[in-house]
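Quick log. Single chain, no ligands specified.
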Amino acid sequence: MNLPLIIYAIAGALVLLLSLPFFLIYALATGKHLESLSNRLGNYRRALGSKAAGRTRIWVHAASVGEVAAAAPIIAELSGDLPTADFVVSTTTSAGQAAARESLGSRTTCVYAPVDFLAAIALALQTVQPDVMVFVETETWPNWLYLSRRFGIPTAVVNGRISGRSIKGYGRIRALVGPVLKTVATFSMIGPSDAKRLKSLGVTAKNIAVNGNAKYDRLAGAATPAAAAAMAALFNLNAGDPVVVAGSLRRGEEGPLLDTFLQIRQMVPAVVWIAAPRHLHRVEKIADRATALGIDFQLRSGLQPPGRERHAALVILDTLGELHAAYSVATVVFCGGSLVPLGGQNVLEAAAWGKPVLFGPSMEDFQGEKELLLASGGGREVRDQEALVDKIHYYLTHPEEAARAGKVGRNMVRANTGAARKHADAILRLLK
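-> predicted structure:
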């Protein structure tokens, strides 16, 4: 254990010990987080029990909803290869936990991840006894990786990504991150730029492979006619209705997007606008702004046909896990987190449905997806609100162009499937 890791471990222990009493008081007083507390401290005996002799156990850590989406097709591939294996999936967030429990099979035990504290990690690894430890995308916890190696557990990072913004942060703590990354047996990365950034942190090329994005596999399979029909019924839509879905809106975007809605409605009076904040606590902000602007709206949670059909031109999506399916009814999609400097969102979720996708200039966290979509012609970058109004109006009034752009984007997503199989193979090699 080098000096930066020792300092990190001591600092983490002090923070945990000082904050734990206050957390316990809060949890007992509110009833929140009690379910996860035992897991956070590394105790999984109730969830898992004893490991069966001779049975393979794979632990996959997927922090939140996005990582769970990437993990699901990889786990599906491994399940076919290892029909008797056990899978443990840990998440950091409650939203990720809900997504994991809903989307992963009965062979998967879903738990909350332990805090990156040596005692908690040690107890967790001793209880779970994984044959391989898998981290999805950007999850690199120093104590977790260090102890996995000390316990003789091979580790893998799959569907790995390091954005341009992330590499700056890693660079500032290179003395800590560099040695920790060298404990990972294999990195199965999304694209060449991710691999290049990883090498800049000192990881040797022989431990790195570029295998694509497993989310393509999930997206292509999830875009079904049945899901689209269900969404059309939910939103009370007919074929050919002009619909804009503005997804994953972040702070600073809600106002401009509602202003855009007002301008578009003047040009295309029949437009239906579905607005989805990235985080549910922003729903109230969008609702308040809409009220201030005199916009009639409905919450998605209030739609339950028959009897409570959509009648307003604006619907605010206030439910978890429905944005991907909601893209199916769009004529054109805007992906948020991109008009403000927050790195963007995954534009391929909408492209998989065959929809033209618009996004702002801040796409640093999804640069590879952006480049693929631009190259295919399935997406357009808009520099500001004026350009956004112009492009939305164009696609709504030129449905044949919207369909063409959507088709080439969907074909691009389908052409890039197969990554889950490659990531699964990287894990299998460690088991052998």
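The mean pLDDT is 91.
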